């Protein structure tokens, strides 16, 4: 039975907009990052894995749309846990890969002649594989059936509870907050600070290049803080808050923070704009091409309508 109301409707439209926008944009990111890989650009490897992670998560959002539309989870506990697994895998592969991009830029700007072996496609590929393996193992030890799936005789819910945590789940949330948020933020802040110092002191760096590097680091840092910060703060609150009344209204805020985190899926095309000099121009070309298609479609519809109007006038 349809359970849509003022509580679920905003989330339904929000996730639908994310899916419609993120799937084509991340397919585009997969294509352009693959072109970078073919040109032996190690950043293409990190971008490719970012887009792949976002695409997998975005496709899985269709299950959440069904949940929001019907008001109950109809796909069973195993699929629920798998969807939660996809969510947290996207969280931690994304912030780890964002850190890799920032560290790569740090090495390129601050130590351009040292550690060149770390800035190769083969190294980036190995690092990406290690990230996927570590994140999968980390999630396997921190995601539980108890915290993901809830079922009784009348209905079932998936990741839609805010019950007091057990001791093991509380430890898992602390680990997520420290390893999945604080450590990446510190790495990004350090890389950003060192790059800004190096760029300002290096007169040989062009002003346009300085702005591009600054924008790249700003997008990465804001993406991490804005998309993942609220969710991880809510994870800590779940440890502190134990009464059911407070948990009831914190659940809605928690759901908002999860929705905000899904905006991370739209970050890859923005990163592509600032990683290469031609990136922004290429994105503009794609946007202009799509806009041109819409204009052609609109003009064709106008001409058809004018033709129908003239035909009616002739008959009269």
TrEMBL record:
Residues 25-272 form the G-protein coupled receptors family 1 profile domain. The chain crosses the membrane at residues 12-31, 43-64, 76-103, 124-145, 174-195, 216-240, 252-275. It is a multi-pass membrane protein. InterPro entries: GPCR_Rhodpsn, GPCR_Rhodpsn_7TM, Psych_rcpt. It comes from Sander lucioperca (Pike-perch). Its main location: membrane. It comes from the Eukaryota. Pfam families: 7tm_1 (PF00001). This is G protein-coupled receptor 65. It is found in: Cell membrane. PANTHER family: G PROTEIN-COUPLED RECEPTOR 65, LYSOPHOSPHATIDIC ACID RECEPTOR 5/SPHINGOSYLPHOSPHORYLCHOLINE RECEPTOR. GO terms for molecular function: G protein-coupled receptor activity. Keywords: Cell membrane, Disulfide bond, G-protein coupled receptor, Glycoprotein, Membrane, Receptor, Transducer, Transmembrane, Transmembrane helix. One of its GO terms (cellular component) is plasma membrane.
